[in-house]
Amino acid sequence: MTDKTPIKMLHDRLLVELDKEAGERRSAGGIVIPATAAMGGRRLAWSRVVAAGPHARAVEVGDRVLFDPEDKAEVEVQGEVYVVMRERDIHAVAADRVADETTGLYL
Length: 107
Hints:
Blueprint: E1 13-18, E2 25-26, E3 32-33, E4 45-52, E5 64-67, E6 73-77, E7 80-86, E8 90-94
Antiparallel strand pairs: 1-4, 1-7, 2-3, 4-5, 5-8, 6-7
């Protein structure tokens, strides 16, 4: 396999890249909270879809999706780390095209 071999996701699988900014957070008061800080309960993460299998119905390439990072399988492709998951493991989709189904929440 060469470095430029195309990749096709199968079934309902998604290939997502984690948000680079997801590591650190800021409190309402402006205090920087490092990614290593322990939080009560589980914290979900946002990522961007870079590839989707043909049976993914509610998610498209470029969408931001919310998922549980503890249920992830990581893969390295050309030096970049991505996460592979099934569409059913996504909790929410953020994209302009879902505006018709508005919830009153915006990113």
